[in-house]
Structures are given as C-alpha cells and as structure tokens.
C-alpha cells in the first residue's frame, strides 16, 4: 500500500471518521473503500452527483428607469450614491 496525503474539509473528514468508527475499521480502509466505490460508479457510466444551484427570486417592483437606456441607469445610480 502506498502512503499519500489527502486534504478534506472538516465536515467530510468528520463524516468519514464517524463511518470508520461505526464499522470498526481504520480511516485508511474506509477512505480506500469510498474511493474505490466512487471509481466503480464512474467506470459504470454513472455521472458524479452535481449540486444544483438554486437562486432566490424576489419581486423588486417596477423599474424606475428603462433598463435598456444605459445613460438613464448610470444617472439613477449616481443620483442615489450622492
């Protein structure tokens, strides 16, 4: 077995350590199995899980200026910053 260093964020490391304790295994064994399982999924054509970005939608009222008119938008911004 080859030794290496892997950087995990704190939450991920905590989850892996908890899993290793529950299964009465070493951290190295648990990480190795998780990596192997992930590689197998990829080899079997399963795409990696992707996080969906969800943006909030807010009603901000009727625009006070024609947004297509860049000079009007600039003038409104400058007026509000004074």
Strand and helix map with partners:
Elements: H1 10-22, H2 27-43, H3 70-80
Helix pairs in contact: 1-2
Task: Please describe what this structure looks like.
The chain is 50% helix and 0% strand. It is mainly α and 82 residues long. Helix 1 (10-22) packs across helix 2. The model has no long low-confidence stretch (mean pLDDT 88).
Concise overview:
The chain has about 80 residues and is mainly alpha-helical. It contains 3 helices and no strands.
Which short descriptors sum up this protein?
mainly alpha, elongated, Arc Repressor Mutant, 82 residues
Query: What is the H/E string?
Result: HHH
Please give the CATH architecture of the domain at 1-49. Orthogonal Bundle
> What is the CATH topology descriptor of the domain at 1-49?
Arc Repressor Mutant
Helix/strand-derived class? mainly alpha
Number of helices: 3
Residues in helices, as a percent range: 40-55%
Give the strand content: under 5%
Question: Which word captures the global form?
Answer: elongated
Overall average residue pLDDT: 88
């Amino acid at each position: 077995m080859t030794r290496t260093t892997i950087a995990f964020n704190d939450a991920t490391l905590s989850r892996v350590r908890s899993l290793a304790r529950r299964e009465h295994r070493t951290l190295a064994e648990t990480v190795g199995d998780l990596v192997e399982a992930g590689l197998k999924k990829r080899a079997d054509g399963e795409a990696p899980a992707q996080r969906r970005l969800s943006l909030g939608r807010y009603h901000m009222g009727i625009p006070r200026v024609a947004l297509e008119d860049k000079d009007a938008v600039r003038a409104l911004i400058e007026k509000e910053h004074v």
